[in-house]
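Saturday, quiet lab. Running sequence design on the structure tokens for the scaffold JK sent over.
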């Protein structure tokens, strides 16, 4: 089969690789219908997350059709049109039973690579470094899905492939951020980052009852889409201080909750951005954490900061601000299995259309160009859909 492979830092290629096979009786094989670029991929493409090996197939956000199933698969059937969350759950361990599926204790066969760093391993994820399981990813014609009954969600007939695709990752991740915010009527929520996850977090916050959502970014096409989804916008390159802008917008108090949806390769302005960029280039930190610091500083006293971006080692983390302002920080890799059915309901009711994220639609053979466009934000790119 054809697949998009990682071969080194900023070295990608579309190659012919072996088809996946059923390895366990609970596996299914999915013929990938749609898969998409994700900002989380850029962290290992750029060399800030270790653990990739030359020839690895990457990609973790996808939907498709079940074409084969192991003998222990009972609920998922060949021919089903399904969406699959990016993290792999077993639905049997303590964490899965408590809806903390990205922390599954069963699905990471390389737990020993994570334990020295994290203390405990996470669940596995498709196409996302060997410490996260070493699974082959979704930028391919076919993919093996372990625990098929736990991880394949049948797509309702009235939901399109393009809408269902983002319920694999961007939608439930954003929705989880809004859930973390414990939104009450009248609340103002600020969101950093108007990429796929940030936009879905903004829309989810409104669906969960926020009176106002303010989204912070610098790209005109992203800010324009945020406004169409019902958010107010702040172009951080056009204001002297994001923190002061948000204070003024909230009567001096600050947002009730802040959602950080940028991650370790964030952009900013001024001396802090120069410092972060220098430290990152010298490998003295992995993160340019401008957005995370701003969210902590901007949030009102006693508020909640939800962190959805991927981070590694952050210098100058303002822990004193967190303590003295009485902030609650909530973060996780997405527990998509908890939220996916609720998100389907929103799509079916017409309250949420994730397909608005798609700006480019290309064949898998153009995967290298897709990631160049996505990484460098050429041609107004927000998300590229790849069709194997």
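Result came back. Writing it out in full:
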């Amino acid at each position: 089969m054809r697949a998009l492979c990682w071969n080194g830092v900023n070295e990608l290629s579309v190659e012919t690789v072996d088809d996946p096979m059923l390895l366990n009786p609970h596996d299914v094989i999915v013929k990938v219908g749609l898969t998409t670029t994700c900002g989380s991929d850029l962290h290992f493409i750029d060399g800030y997350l270790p653990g990739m090996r030359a020839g690895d197939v990457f990609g973790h956000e996808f939907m498709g059709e079940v074409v084969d199933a192991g003998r222990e698969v009972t609920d998922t059937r060949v021919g089903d049109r399904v969406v699959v969350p990016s993290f792999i759950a077993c639905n049997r361990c303590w964490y899965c039973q408590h809806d903390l599926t990205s922390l599954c204790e069963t699905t990471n066969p390389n737990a020993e690579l994570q334990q020295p760093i994290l203390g405990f391993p996470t669940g596995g994820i498709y196409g996302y470094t060997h410490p996260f399981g070493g699974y082959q990813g979704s930028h391919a014609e076919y993919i093996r899905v372990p625990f098929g009954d736990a991880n394949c969600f049948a797509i309702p007939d009235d939901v399109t492939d393009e809408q269902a695709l983002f319920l694999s990752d961007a939608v439930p991740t954003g929705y989880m951020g809004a859930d973390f915010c414990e939104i009450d009527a009248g609340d103002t929520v600020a969101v950093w980052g108007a990429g796929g996850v940030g936009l879905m977090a903004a829309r989810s916050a409104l669906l969960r009852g926020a009176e106002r959502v303010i989204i912070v970014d610098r790209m005109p096409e992203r800010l324009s889409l945020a406004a169409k989804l019902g958010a107010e916008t702040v172009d951080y390159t056009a204001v002297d201080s994001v923190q002061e802008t948000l204070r003024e917008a909230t009567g001096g108090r600050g947002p009730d909750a802040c959602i950080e949806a940028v991650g370790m390769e964030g952009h900013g302005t001024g001396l802090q951005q120069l410092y972060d960029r220098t430290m990152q280039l010298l490998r003295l930190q992995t993160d340019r954490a401008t957005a995370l610091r701003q969210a902590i500083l901007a949030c009102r006293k006693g508020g909640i900061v939800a962190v959805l971006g991927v981070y590694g080692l952050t210098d100058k983390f303002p822990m004193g601000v967190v303590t003295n302002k009485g902030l609650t920080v909530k973060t996780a890799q997405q527990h998509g299995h908890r939220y996916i059915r609720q998100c389907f309901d929103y799509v079916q009711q017409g309250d949420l259309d994730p397909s608005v994220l798609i700006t480019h639609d290309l064949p898998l053979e153009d995967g290298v160009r897709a990631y160049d466009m996505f990484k460098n934000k050429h041609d107004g790119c927000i998300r590229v859909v790849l069709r194997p």
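Notes for JK: The longest strand covers residues 28-36. The domain at 2-169+334-386 is CATH 3.90.180.10 (Quinone Oxidoreductase; Chain A, domain 1). Ask whether to fix the surface positions before the next round.
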